[in-house]
Structure formats: structure tokens, C-alpha cells
Amino acid sequence: ASAIFPFSVDCQTVRTRGHLYKIIKYKSMAPRYEIAVGLQRGHKTTKIPSGKTKADKVRPARLKGIQTKHTKFVRDLIREVVGHAPYEKRAMELLKVSKDKRALKFLKRRLGTHIRAKRKREELSNILTQMRKAQATHK
Length: 139
Fold this sequence. Notes:
Ribosomal_eL36_sf, elongated, structural constituent of ribosome
């Protein structure tokens, strides 16, 4: 048995309720040799991902939600041209006077969920800090 399996085996036969059962106990793993038989047979190599097989490619569904350079550029350009929505301006005013909790409540009412409101508050506070830095460098 040890010639086929890459580990040493202790085999035992047990009779219970009129049935014979073989109990195989694996003692210890022996070093893995490249042998021509068994489940792990043959010379082991590392596969080179070719991209030709289905397993190598990333499915398009997995790419959902990943922002590309192009979409980031387009959104930044639109934000620069159009500006902020009225509710965003109001939230920024609340953040300017350090009413963070009130801004979060306001954004939650407008956006619908707590997580989206937190994300929007963080985004608007980052914009405010960038504006402050830009004003500091101009002066």
C-alpha cells in the first residue's frame, strides 16, 4: 500500500453487527516522490497562465464596481464643470461650521442609507480640506 500512497498506512479490519469494516489509519506523510501511478502521478510543473482558457480570464461580472482611470477622469471633469448639487452645498455648509452629526442626518435623509451618507460626508469633507489647502497656497 505504501508504494501507491505517498504516506505510510496502517490497515485494520473490524467486525461490528455482522459487517466487516476496513479502518485505514495514516501514520505520517512520507516525502512526495514523482511516481508514475496514483492520484498525484507524474512530474510536477507550474502552469503558465495563458489567458486563452476560461479559468485564466477574469469574468466581466467581477469587474463591476472597479473604477477605471477613464471613468474617474470623466466624473472629475463633470464635477468641475457642473459643480455640486444643492443638497451637497448645504451639507458642506454644515461641515464648515463643524456640525458633522447634523450633516450626516441630513445626508441620510437625502440619500436613503446610513453607509451612503457616511461615504458622501467623507467625500465632501475631503473636498473642503482640498479647498482650504488650495486657498492656503494662493495666499
